[in-house]
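Protein in question kept underneath.
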Amino acid sequence: MTALFDEKTLRKLDRLALVASQIRAGAMKGDRRSTKRGTSIEFADYRDYTRGDDLRRVDWNVYARLERPVIKLLEEEEDLAVHLLLDASRSMDYGPDEHHKFRYAQRLAAALGYIALAAGDRLTVTTLFAVNGQGGAGAGEQGSRQYGPARGRHHTLRLLHFLEELKTSGVTELDSSIRTYALAAKRPGLAFVISDLFSPSGYRDGLNQLQGRGYEVTLLHLLAPDELDPPLAGDLRLIDAETGDPQDITLDGGLRDLYRKRVESWRDEIEAYCVKRRVNYIPVTTDTKWDELVLYHLRRRGLVK
């Protein structure tokens, strides 16, 4: 198939679907069942007739048996808008091959995107990046960084090639990038933000804007194992991956312990905020196998079924 996935890997995802607690109405009929009652031919339930109901929806066979009028409810099928927002800043270019953050993010986006396409959902994938220091989503140094909107399994190869060709660059201002996307997109739905959250401006205003525009938000927070517990010691000069700014430090056991506690506290703070705002927060370390994350952890959280 591609370097991201092979056919065997994709078959693991074939029977899965992304879950939204409130389906957003689509412009086309899709393969998922809506929580609304519509006008398709799929029977859903009955309810008692009330004055003003369309008499054409009365089930006269039931009326003949029960001698009371009931309305036949039908189940509408509709497509779900799925938005994958992928942090492509330089800080994502970190970690050895098997634990590389951006490569992991590409595979995760490919898995979620394939599930959406296979289920008949309307998929858009967009990178979050910076241009001249200003956050944005859309076109950048590499030309167009948006895939879709697309719908249907036949778009899978194009999705995988799009993701494979992406490169990291620059500093991403997550707040402004996400806010710009939320204001520009026309079809709210499920939004998956995939990022290490290393952004000077933070992320909260952007997520708030997504929710305010009607999105159901999942934050997939990616970190490499070395970022949780750095295997370093002694006198070091650290270089910021995005800005290039240097920082001289002496790393001993006490400072490493303090670092680990602060990273843990940072993740706990993000989780507490997300719980308060009803954002799905999924902390991910890149030594977790992608299929374990999708097939077990996201299933357990009710995000896929």
